# Entry
Amino acid sequence: MGGRLMEWREAGGVEWLEASLPGAKVGFSTRSAGSVRESRATLANALGLAPEQIATARQVHGAELVFHDGATSGEFVEADGHVISDPGVAALVFAADCLPVAVAGPGGVAMLHCGWRGLAAGIVARGVTAVEATDAAIGPAIGPCCYEVGEEVLSVFAPLGETVAAGRMLDLTEVARRLLREAGVERIEAADLCTSCAEERFFSYRREGERAGRQAGVAWLDHGEG
# Structure
């Protein structure tokens, strides 16, 4: 795995998993913050952020990035990744089985929403390049224990090696690890927690369907640490 370990944090009844990257902080939320698709205020307050400084976008399972240099975007912008170069902005992606992945380097921090389509489309490499990433944190997502896919998906990731899947069960976290390494990131930490299995802690689209809420991956610059 490499790098520094993630740690559980709690404030005001909200629990999240926190990672420290060079010059940046990352938080991966749980059910305790409610569904961030409906409201980000509870999570923002727990993390010590102002809700209005959080940038979001309309996620379309692609590889487009939006760049922030002092202003937040609205959800009318279609993008699955955010690149932050200003400490006044925090980037948030919604997830309910897909991977939230943060990468950081000299160019800032990027927060990426990585479903299999986005991973296949190259969102990891694009995020790494955008910030010259040296470190990454991979949040909770559906695990290989629960993520059965078809041959058309398996074939996309076959070049990464046989062990990214066992039969029809795909390991999204391992896919991300390998793509990060291919892009030159060596220090990678991962939650390795399955959103579908941990019903008491995480929302899961595959388990709950359309009614599923969304947890968040949030990243912001914090030059005092990391």
